[in-house]
Structures are given as structure tokens and as C-alpha cells.
Design a protein that fits this description.
By secondary structure, the chain is an alpha/beta fold. It contains six helices and eleven strands. The protein is elongated. The chain starts with a strand and ends with a strand.
Length: 192
């Protein structure tokens, strides 16, 4: 039987993260992972529903031992919290048509690449000759790749998978692993 209890704060809405309709699957995965860890470690670990704005507060005041979060491990957070590796990586990926000559970031020089966020721009601005074109709608972004208006797109992995495996199946292909530190992970307060 489990020997101790650990309460983990969990905002089941994953706010402000956009799960592209995969929220139930992500929540189910995190619940299954927690159950697996609880069984493997012989520790009682329970996910406790809290609102997103309470997640940090309940571990700061030590009423819970940790939280599931979409926060990135920026240096200012790392001074106060210990971050796990990403349980689910959520960073942006490179997307092209299935028949594109662009196979990786190395092939992007001189290409027109559509982006959705300024964070995406930071990943790509160091590639010489890449023309970054901002979009606000992911479906229009990806349609522009399919029609040849763009050579590639750069967007968050869950949205990319949702679109590439459904609406644009057979037309678009994800060419990279998720970039950056974005992800869903466990955090806890650093020991003093």
C-alpha cells in the first residue's frame, strides 16, 4: 500500500495552453501517468483540481507538494521552482508539403515561412534569408503552404498534428521535433 500522500495541483483546462481539441486526451494521459508513478513509487499521488491562477500559490504556501504546469523553466522561475523534463513537449515544429524539398531547418534559406506568434519568430530569425510572414489563423497558415504561397509553416506541435493528421492529411508533413522548452511538466518548490 502507498506510504505517503502527495497532492499535485492540476488545472484541467490547461489554461492558457491551446490543446487544439486534445484536452481530454492530455488530461487522461496525465492522470494515467500519475497513477503509474503512484503505483511504481508506492506513494499516494493525487491530482487535485485547482484553477490555473492558484497552481503556483498552493505550492508556494506548501499546501500542495507540486503542480502540473505549462510554464517554461525561465531563469526567474528556476530560482524558486524545480521543473521536471517535459511530460509532453508543446513547442513549434516545421511543416511543409509532403513533396517539398525542404526536409529540415537547414533547407530553409531563402524560403517564405508562415508563423503564428512572435515566439516562433525568435526560433527562425537566425536562419539567413528566411522571410517570415505572420498569420493569425492556423488553418489559413497551413492552407497557404498547401497552395504554394508559403514554402513552410512553423507552429505548435499539437495544432500541427491535429491539422496534418486530419484536414491536411496526405498534403502536409511535420519535419522537425518540437523546438524550445515549451511543454507540460511537473514543478515543485525548491528546497530551502
Amino acid at each position: 500500500p502507498p506510504k505517503t500522500a502527495a497532492a499535485i495541483a492540476f488545472d484541467r483546462t490547461l489554461f492558457p495552453f491551446d490543446s487544439y481539441g486534445q484536452q481530454e486526451a492530455i488530461v487522461g494521459f496525465l492522470e494515467d501517468l500519475t497513477n503509474y508513478l503512484s503505483t511504481s513509487l508506492k506513494e499516494s499521488i493525487e491530482l487535485i483540481s485547482v484553477s490555473w491562477d492558484q497552481s503556483l500559490r498552493v505550492i508556494e504556501d506548501r499546501s500542495m507538494q507540486g503542480a502540473v504546469t505549462t510554464l517554461s523553466p525561465y531563469p526567474f522561475y528556476q530560482k524558486q521552482f524545480l521543473f521536471s523534463i517535459p511530460l509532453i513537449k508543446t513547442g513549434p515544429v516545421l511543416i511543409t508539403t509532403t513533396d517539398s524539398s525542404i526536409q529540415s531547418f537547414d533547407d530553409l534559406q531563402g524560403s517564405a515561412v508562415g508563423i503564428l506568434t512572435t515566439q516562433d519568430q525568435l526560433f527562425l530569425e537566425s536562419i539567413p534569408g528566411v522571410k517570415l510572414i505572420p498569420y493569425s489563423d492556423p488553418s489559413l497558415l497551413l492552407q497557404s503552404v498547401v497552395t504554394g504561397q508559403l514554402d513552410a509553416a512553423f507552429m505548435e506541435i499539437l495544432g500541427a498534428k491535429t491539422y496534418c493528421e486530419n484536414i491536411f492529411e496526405g498534403s502536409l508533413k511535420i519535419r522537425s521535433t518540437p523546438m524550445g522548452e515549451s511543454g507540460i511538466r511537473f514543478i515543485t518548490i525548491l528546497a530551502e
